[in-house]
């Protein structure tokens, strides 16, 4: 088995309102694709945000490649370069065109050579079918195109871990597929990913492991067939039922 | 063609005097705007603070300036300061003070609006890409804020130029005052001059404000 890349241990996250994550522990091995599911508000986004320290945590630890990822710490910029994240909301920078969006961090944070970084960005854009959009501005793109650019922007930093937070949730149905296909392609390349999604069929197709979160805890941690066919907990059964429809006539 | 008394314009240095008056108005506006922008940016940043004291104080300042007619403010600064404190300030200085106070308030509110309208995920996307907070401000937040601000502050300039027509009330000889003087001096020889001269003043205001408005509209479209 591949070595452990990410180690989340006893993670506790509290907001003023109360405890959202209450002792979350799991390991992610290199090349694994983890899908995180759970009902709305159970803390999936919060978990991803804690992994790259966008939020301070109240207990536990996150380690990437043996090094701690700590909110506000000195090495945080170096750690975050290794973690790519794509959000649900379209988060491209509206005042920059596609190629500048992609190149900002490689040039300013990693101080890479411009022509080399640009060549790589163009290669990645081609891979997601957007090589002709390099000079376009975000407002000229569809939602699905924006999300593919956001994925390329994350990839261009050479992250070892990718976090996806419901990247298709705000999209029209006909654009969901093009984005999911890009993610399937990444999984095929052996990338390590943690994906939060409400697309259950996609989850089943892409996941090596499914984590089900309820009440701040990981209630199930199993392979996708087990999770979708024979979940152990009642909460998971209830949750999966939401996606089943009985014939009404 | 009816006699508009336009010939008066070409008597002596009348045209030059009108243009001189226009320059006084534009100069007061430009100085006030130049002062209002940095002060307004500071005020706008302070207005986004959560501190209740700064919140209340800046709010009162903004409301006060907005509610008071500019003319009243001009009178307060020009006449009262002389009476009460014995300061002898010129009409032009009083105008700059009032317009700067007004411009700072308006700019501050624009800056506050621009800052809070940048969505939180813009900051977070920067952070997730490992940009430092300084880099996030420099490359992401400030450029977007400035783009929103520039068209709005250009509109503020045209509003100021138009409002300078009030300062003749405190004895500043700007374009409208010059027009009055010219009309007054030629009341006997060409009684119709009032119409022609004011028409020219109108065109002058238009020639100054219209390109500025167009520029604002162009930038707004370009940076939307
Ligand atoms: N900044 C915050 N301040 C206070 N409470 C917060 C904050 N962010 C999230 N929460 C709370 O934490 C809980 C988990 O939120 P989170 O966004 O992680 O849920 P989620 O599982 O991603 O939900 P969804 O499926 O709807 O995206 C929610 O109850 C939410 O109200
Ligand atoms: Mg969420």
What would you say this structure looks like, in words?
The complex is a heterodimer of chains A (249) and B (224). The model of chain A has no long low-confidence stretch (mean pLDDT 93). Chain A has a domain of 71 residues. In chain A, strand 4 and strand 5 form a beta hairpin. Chain A contains nine helices and ten strands. Chain A is of the alpha/beta class. Helix content of chain A is 36%, strand content 25%. With 224 residues, chain B is an all-alpha fold. Chain B has a single domain, classed as MetI-like (MetI-like fold). Chain B has eight helices and no strands. The longest helix of chain B is centred in the N-terminal third of the chain and has 34 residues. Chain B is elongated and about 75 Å long. The model of chain B has no long low-confidence stretch (mean pLDDT 86). Chains A and B meet through helix 2, strand 6 and helix 3 of A and helix 5 and helix 6 of B. The complex binds adenosine-5'-triphosphate and magnesium ion (MG). The site of adenosine-5'-triphosphate (ATP) has 12 residues of chain A, from helix 1.
Short description:
The complex is a heterodimer of chains A (249) and B (224). Chain A has 249 residues and is of the alpha/beta class. Chain A is 36% helix and 25% strand.
For the structure shown, list the relevant keywords.
heterodimer, A: 249 residues, alpha/beta, 6-stranded mixed β-sheet, 4-stranded antiparallel β-sheet, 9 helices, 10 strands, 36% helix, globular, B: 224 residues, mainly alpha, MetI-like fold, 78% helix, 0% strand, elongated, binds adenosine-5'-triphosphate, binds magnesium ion
* CATH H-level superfamily title of chain B: MetI-like
CATH architecture of chain B: Orthogonal Bundle
Portion in strands of chain B: under 5%
User: How many beta strands in the DSSP annotation of chain A?
Assistant: 10
Number of domains of chain B: 1
Q: What is the number of helical segments of chain B per DSSP (H or I, 4+ residues)?
A: 8
Q: Mean pLDDT of chain B, rounded to whole units?
A: 86
User: Mean of the pLDDT scores of chain A?
Assistant: 93
Q: Tally the beta strands of chain B.
A: 0
Radius of gyration of chain B: 22 Å
Percent helix of chain B, as a range, is over 70%
Query: CATH fold name of chain B, please?
Result: MetI-like fold
How would you characterize the largest beta sheet of chain A?
6 strands, mixed
Main sheet makeup of chain B: none
Q: Span between N and C termini of chain B?
A: 47 Å
Which two chains share the most extensive interface?
Answer: A-B, 25 and 19 residues
